[in-house]
Amino acid sequence: MQVSFSDRPYLQSAVFAALVLFVVTAVAFIWVAHVYYRKKLSGLPGGNELYLECAYFSEIGKRPSQQDSVFISSLDDYRKYGITALVADGMGGMRYGGEIAQKVADFVEGMCPMSFFATEQNADILRSFSNELYEEYKLQGGSTLALVNISGNYMNYYSVGDSDIILIRDGTPTILNPRQNYMTLLIKSLCRNNKTTQTAYTNAKAKALIDFMGNQDPKVIYTRKPIRIFDGDKIIVSSDGLTDAVSLRHMKHYIKDSASVTATLLKRAVAGRKRPKQDNYTAIVFSVKRGYL
Length: 293
Fold this sequence. Notes:
Layout: H1 9-41, E1 50-59, E2 68-72, H2 78-81, E3 83-89, H3 97-111, H4 119-137, E4 145-151, E5 154-160, E6 164-169, E7 172-175, H5 182-192, H6 198-202, E8 221-222, E9 227-228, E10 234-238, H7 240-243, H8 248-251, H9 259-273, E11 281-290
Antiparallel strand pairs: 1-11, 2-3, 3-4, 4-5, 5-8, 5-9, 6-7, 6-10, 10-11
């Protein structure tokens, strides 16, 4: 005896339920894929997403040689790996300052592509490398480290020493990383004792670094949570040769929409100060923009 499909209503229900489940699963998969690729492409050129324009300068100033080093990862790989940018300022007056700064730049290049979400591990790697430099040079030289790692619409940073990472938003420059120098310790001590901080700025040892690459187990300052960046933001990574010559209060006058124009104006501003003991001055400038098809 043959039994038709219509004679088994529960089979009809099961098949219908299976079809509904299949359609729901397919729609859910398409939606998840859509969200994933939107997040993956967030902050990249094309559509209405963010992209970066980059420019830099590196000048000797009044020093006998250039002890600043720069590294900028390939902008061509930004879609896949993000971008990493570093300024390493060799400690002036020390025999191996410039050499160590170059080694720091070479080491960071070797870390690329840098894992964006492994900030603690990245900081540990940088600290371990500083220990290697300590063993090799025995404090006969050192270097600062100011590093940004940008992926999509977010940025992490890492810092050792007194080079600056500056975010300009709505025309207002803000230094994101604290300087690891003696002045910082003096200011904290004076504030705790309810005293004015003027003497901290005139102290002869104020600019002496209390931590640097080449020191043993330096404190690597890094972002615990990525910083959101927006259309119109500017990011400057620089040696203190720039910010010692051009204060934040005056820097805003040189910030333009174009990264290359901003870099040119800042370089001219430092040269125009004609400071007799002008340090090497180096800066990487990013202009965050929104692209349109």
